[in-house]
Recover the amino acids of this structure.
């Protein structure tokens, strides 16, 4: 007994199986991430080393080149690129697409540890090995500008008031601040005055180490009280640094104000962020891998409305970049295309069957097959993107083919005088292997795409699997649910006026095709 006969004997079972397909498809859809394109970025490792004060040539010869030679022996490397700048070395190692990122990172760390003994001993810190995230590009930029506040004040406001409100959005990995300037105390020293007092830079450094320090002071305990002692040793203001004692000798006290000046300013004044030629501070939202960009941006805009109400009057903010707009537009266009495709399917079926009940039946078959593909996407770890949505659009025409073949054969049996149960059973049994072979053939066309290598294979892998999965699900639905629908929603046995008015045209087309086929068979050598 075939699955089609079982479905006709137990129509509730066939209905429940289709409902389960929809149920699992909805569950899979709820876990799918949304992005513009499939994740095709290769595993990438970054090695960053700081060497303050060294020029680019020294950084390249003493840091970058030794590290490059060490990591070149790691297997699976595709490319190695480096950048040596003032006080900074950055090496980017790109691996083959099939490489394991965790294993690659461990191999790079081992090689860097071995090469560390060949690096200068006075580097700021050991080289930092980090995994470059393919989703580390910001999806939103929110600049902050003010005509009255400095960039340092804007940075402080953004970090202490806005980052926490946006960091807790579900799916956000990090909120970065671009163009921020942290406050730092700059000590400007006059070399002439320093020499006149017979002092050196080391004396100033020693004074800082002695006086700008926070030490534990213990506690004072009495009979009935216990007090914690806090010694304020940190210098915080410009006056504190200017009054710092550098040297005391022969009753003379030399303070820092005698040899220089302390000025509170930005920690790094070599870069800035600008918008419309106005210096600003920008917040950037970084999504987690596989996160749903639509959900992130929707939640952001809900919080952003409240943030704008709480902003001080002198701070102006707006959304400068929203990458989710492209994803939204793609989803909207695909939704419209699916609607048009389903409408055309219904129209074409009506024009040939000339029965609205049969024509509207694909509105049940098609959603079952398409929704079920979302569960396949979830199992394979895919996302909703342009290519998977394109596969859904293409599958709209493919998934209805099996149902039409089964329906047409059942319809022909009913026209021959069979009752609806017998017509459904005999018609489905007769076309069973044709449906299976057609669906497997279509799936076999797209499945080999998963074996393509390189960026092309990674790009179209999701497309091929989604189309093949939709076709196989449609074959199952057409052999289980479609026969049941033909029995329960079989339509009228009689024909409408539109049917009788158009039947001569179809009869003529059938007769003409028969004559053409017979004539062609007389000259079989033409086809050879």
């Amino acid at each position: 007994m075939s699955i089609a006969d079982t479905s006709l004997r137990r129509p509730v079972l066939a209905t429940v199986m289709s409902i389960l397909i929809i149920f699992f498809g909805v569950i899979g859809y709820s876990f799918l991430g949304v992005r513009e394109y499939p994740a095709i970025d290769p595993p990438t490792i970054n090695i960053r080393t700081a060497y303050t004060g060294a020029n680019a040539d020294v950084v390249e010869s003493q840091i970058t080149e030794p590290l490059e030679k060490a990591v070149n022996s790691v297997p699976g490397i595709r490319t190695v690129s480096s950048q040596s700048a003032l006080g900074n070395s950055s090496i980017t190692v790109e691996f083959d697409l099939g490489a394991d990122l965790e294993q690659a990172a461990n191999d790079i760390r081992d090689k860097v540890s071995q090469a560390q003994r060949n690096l200068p001993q006075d580097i700021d810190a050991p080289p930092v090995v980090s995994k470059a995230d393919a989703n580390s590009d910001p999806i939103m930029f929110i600049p902050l500008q003010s005509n009255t506040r400095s960039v340092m004040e804007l940075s402080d406001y953004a970090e202490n008031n806005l980052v926490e409100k946006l960091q807790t959005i579900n799916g956000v990995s990090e909120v970065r601040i671009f163009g921020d300037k942290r406050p730092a105390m700059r000590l400007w020293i006059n070399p002439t005055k320093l020499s006149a007092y017979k002092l050196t830079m080391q004396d100033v450094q020693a004074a800082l180490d002695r006086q700008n320090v926070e030490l534990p002071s213990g506690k004072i305990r009495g009979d009935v009280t216990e007090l914690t002692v806090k010694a304020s040793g940190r210098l915080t203001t410009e006056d504190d640094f200017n009054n710092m004692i550098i040297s005391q000798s022969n009753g003379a006290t030399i303070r820092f104000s005698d040899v220089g000046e302390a000025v509170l300013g930005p920690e790094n004044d070599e870069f800035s962020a600008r918008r419309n030629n106005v210096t600003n501070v920008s917040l950037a939202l970084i999504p987690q891998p596989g996160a749903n960009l639509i959900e992130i941006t929707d939640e952001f805009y809900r919080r952003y409305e409240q943030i704008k109400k709480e902003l001080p009057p002198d701070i102006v903010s707006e959304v400068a970049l929203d990458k989710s707009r492209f994803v939204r537009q793609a989803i909207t266009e695909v939704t419209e295309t699916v609607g048009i495709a389903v409408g055309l399917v219904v129209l074409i079926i009506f024009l040939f069957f000339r029965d609205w009940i049969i024509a509207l039946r694909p509105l049940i078959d098609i959603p079952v097959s398409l929704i079920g593909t979302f569960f396949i996407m979830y199992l394979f770890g895919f996302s909703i993107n342009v290519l998977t949505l394109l596969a859904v659009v293409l599958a709209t025409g493919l998934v209805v083919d099996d149902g039409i073949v089964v329906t047409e054969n059942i319809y022909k049996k009913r026209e021959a005088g069979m009752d609806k149960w017998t017509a459904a059973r005999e018609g489905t049994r007769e076309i069973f292997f044709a449906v299976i072979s057609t669906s497997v053939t279509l799936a076999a066309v797209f499945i080999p795409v998963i074996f393509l290598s390189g960026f092309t294979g990674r790009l179209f892998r999701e497309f091929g699997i989604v189309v093949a999965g939709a076709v196989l699900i449609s074959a199952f639905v057409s052999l289980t649910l479609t026969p049941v629908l033909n029995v329960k929603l079989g339509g009228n046995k009689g024909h409408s006026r539109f049917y009788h008015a158009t039947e001569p045209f179809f009869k003529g087309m059938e007769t003409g095709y028969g004559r053409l086929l017979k004539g062609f068979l007389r000259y079989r050598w033409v086809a050879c």
Summary: DSSP finds 16 helices and 16 strands in the chain. The mean pLDDT is 84. The first strand starts at residue 44 and ends at 50. The longest helix spans residues 454-488.
